[in-house]
């Protein structure tokens, strides 16, 4: 697809070696896309790497299945050892997905000193720090641009562009399913279940959507991002994670009234002595750049101490974007091998134990939706209950009239910055006093 | 600023060399920032490069001037040859700005086989292709992330993330002054001159703002982007360039009425057989991501054939963001040198002669603001005049009543996609027939 590259000049000036030999684990839509991109851009990639890329082996489960034209039948094998144990293979490209089998093969490839490129998010989220450690110890490279954010070059931006900066904050729309569902609720007036069913019908949500709508997929991605942005070695299970299941259509209407939209965000902050990592529905101003990221698109906002804000936006998933990211990693790892400098990319990921701030110590602003039977002095009672714990209010409204006198009404509160533990304690105290007709809802507000 | 890096492990596994020795040309705010970032992140950068970075020389004009604490007085020199002719210097960092002197020193550094990092936009826009050719021929690297888009990692994204993709289109808000002025006109209801004066007062516009408001700065940046995105060797003088000077406050009101905002965009398209490069005020939908890039921020939207849309957003200018970009380039170039693979980064910029589509052959949608004395049949006459040349209309409105009967009124036309030559020919024909009370205004519409 690219125009003619300077392959001849390349060969003339870089240390000569035969070729960079690739072994693929898997040949589904991403793997097939990788083979096609490598074939279509062969001369261009050769110029960039300093040696031709040569596919040696492609591991598949079913050798009789039809493959893309770029897949030479002679490469096909069903034996993993033909890829990970072949000393002639320089880079193992893991595009098989899943956890156990992929983990074992990636570990074997690293142990054999091969460069590894993977697009496996689950693998990275669960075993990323350990695999990075293994690669650093073995002096080889582990690259995974395709595993997070699909075609968004977030990994190399964190690794390269922020090399001399300090990421103070990140906030990302990293789950396309949640973003689609919230968008349809807000713009189409759909209920949550209806929006999820629509996402399923369009192929944007799984039959069991809970990994997405429960926030766990976003938490996995936040762990990988935190590894690069904050050098943090944090398991997904340690994060505060909320999904979008509790959001109701009226929350969108109320948020709109205050100039906000509700987005499902993965948020990280670095305070130096501790970091904050949390995944939850968040109110952000309608005019912020993240507010206008629509449909299944993803976006990640980074705040560097020196760079200031930097946002990357694009397709967070999809076979072709992921294949492009995998090829960009093959190029990086291949270039390191040609240069005799394997391991240099991965060594940049310097991880340390980073204490995680407890969620009750988080300080931000809050949107509270409280349901209580209407009576004189109700608003004063709520304001007083929050004030007792030092939570001060920016706004407090009763957006709708009750159906009949004494019926429960919604009271919506927007707080100033407060410690989360104080907000939840105040709500709990009022709840035990029988003030509420339904459990209070709390969503956080991010201002920038 | 970064936490402890794995500098010791780095030294153990990479080919051992003394250090990567830097010479700076200039020590203003960007240069000072580079020295400070290098000092503050020394161990971290050493781990990433595979060797320590060591500053040898800093060229300044006035040796008595106070410098940042990170600048050792013993480095200071006023003789350029101490930097570019010293065989012990590996990388020359050009942060002096200007054109002639910088060009001569960068050429000498490249000729001496040194890696060159520059943040000089003017130099790149005017001499980029030739300097890239020189670097490729000499087998050394020329890196310039800091020269375009300040802290936005657009150069490395085009070079690395899109390595196996094809950029079909780019659209960028690349001039902060124009973006600020248009934003204040739209949101603050200011006139153009008033908004420019405000920008000057805030330090966002030069005393002579015409390089920015005339679109020439954006055209320079588009040339550099086109070199990487389309492999195009195109002088800025060949581009179709319009500034924001003709925009009136009512254009913002009319655009708003149709659901658009007006942004000053640099636009590039690749049609395979030809490319399109143009800089002009553009109407884009209010809900598009570029529409919400406010103030002096910049954003560049890339559309890859495989990757789909990818947007990068951040501070397009500023000393600190630029310094971070310069250091990220020093890291890349230094790593290549340590690996014995100098020239590999730059060789990826494969330029070819690319024919530029004449502006009259551009096909897009148009916003036309026409002023004509009100009379029966006026709208029919305009619709007919456009229709005669095959330009079909989507909407046509007279947004305001005339002050007195027979006074000129504004007629605003939104066309369907049309060939620009036909639109301008139709307008010219109506103009010569004396239909208009003032020269017609034409602005282009981009839908995505």
From TrEMBL, chains A, B:
* Pathway involvement of the protein, from the record: Amino-acid biosynthesis; L-threonine biosynthesis; L-threonine from L-aspartate: step 3/5; Amino-acid biosynthesis; L-methionine biosynthesis via de novo pathway; L-homoserine from L-aspartate: step 3/3
Residues reported in the UniProt entry to bind L-homoserine: 206
One Pfam entry name: ACT
Q: Which residues form the active site?
A: 221
Q: What class of enzyme is it?
A: oxidoreductase
Q: Kindly state which keywords UniProt assigns to this record, in alphabetical order.
A: Amino-acid biosynthesis, Methionine biosynthesis, NADP, Oxidoreductase, Threonine biosynthesis
Q: What are this entry's molecular-function GO terms?
A: homoserine dehydrogenase activity; NADP binding
Record-listed E.C. numbers: 1.1.1.3
**GO biological process: one example:** threonine biosynthetic process
Domain (ACT): give its ranges.
Answer: 367-444
Which residues are involved in binding NADPH?
121
**Which residues are involved in binding NADP(+)?**
25-32
Record-linked SUPFAM superfamilies: ACT-like (SSF55021), Glyceraldehyde-3-phosphate dehydrogenase-like, C-terminal domain (SSF55347), NAD(P)-binding Rossmann-fold domains (SSF51735)
Q: Spell out the family assignment given in the record's similarity comment.
A: Belongs to the homoserine dehydrogenase family.
Protein name as annotated: Homoserine dehydrogenase
Origin species: Polyangium jinanense
């Amino acid at each position: 697809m690219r125009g003619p590259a300077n392959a001849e000049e390349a060969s003339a000036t870089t240390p000569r070696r035969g070729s960079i030999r690739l072994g693929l684990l898997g040949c589904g839509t991403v793997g097939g896309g990788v083979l096609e991109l490598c074939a279509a851009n062969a001369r261009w990639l050769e110029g960039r790497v300093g040696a031709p890329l040569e596919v040696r082996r492609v591991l598949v489960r079913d050798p009789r299945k039809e493959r893309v034209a770029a897949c030479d039948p002679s490469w096909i094998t069903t034996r993993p050892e033909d890829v990970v144990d072949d000393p002639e293979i320089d880079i193992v490209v893991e595009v098989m997905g899943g956890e156990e089998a992929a983990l074992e093969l990636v570990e074997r490839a690293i142990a054999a000193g091969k460069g590894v490129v993977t697009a496996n998010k689950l693998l990275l989220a669960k075993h990323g720090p350990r695999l990075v450690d293994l690669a650093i110890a073995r002096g080889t490279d582990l690259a995974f641009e395709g595993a997070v954010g699909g075609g968004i070059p977030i990994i190399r931006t964190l690794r390269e562009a922020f090399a001399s900066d300090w990421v103070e904050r990140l906030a990302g729309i990293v789950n396309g399913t949640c973003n689609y569902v919230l968008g349809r609720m807000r713009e189409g007036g759909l209920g949550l279940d209806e929006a999820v069913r629509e996402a399923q019908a369009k192929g944007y949500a799984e039959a069991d959507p809970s990994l997405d709508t429960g926030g766990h997929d976003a938490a996995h991605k936040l762990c990988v991002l935190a590894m690069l942005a904050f050098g943090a070695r944090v398991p997904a299970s340690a994060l505060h994670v909320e999904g979008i299941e509790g959001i109701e259509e009226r929350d969108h209407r109320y948020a709109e009234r205050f100039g906000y939209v509700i987005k499902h965000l993965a948020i990280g902050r670095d305070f130096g002595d501790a970091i904050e990592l949390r995944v939850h529905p968040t109110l952000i101003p309608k005019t912020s750049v993240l507010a206008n990221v629509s449909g299944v698109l993803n976006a990640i906002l980074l705040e560097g101490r020196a760079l200031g804000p930097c946002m990357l936006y694009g397709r967070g998933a999809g076979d072709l974007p992921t294949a492009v990211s995998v090829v960009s990693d093959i190029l990086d790892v291949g270039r390191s091998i040609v240069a005799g400098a394997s391991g240099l990319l991965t060594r940049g990921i310097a991880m340390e134990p980073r204490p995680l701030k407890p969620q009750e110590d988080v300080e931000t602003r809050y949107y509270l939706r409280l349901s209580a039977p209407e009576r004189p002095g109700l608003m004063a009672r709520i304001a007083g209950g929050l004030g007792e714990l030092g939570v001060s209010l920016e706004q407090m409204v009763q957006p709708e009239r009750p159906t009949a006198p004494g019926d429960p009404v919604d009271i919506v509160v927007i707080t100033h910055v407060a410690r989360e533990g104080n907000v939840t304690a105040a709500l709990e105290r009022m709840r035990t006093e029988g003030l509420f007709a339904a459990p209070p809802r709390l969503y956080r507000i991010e201002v920038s």
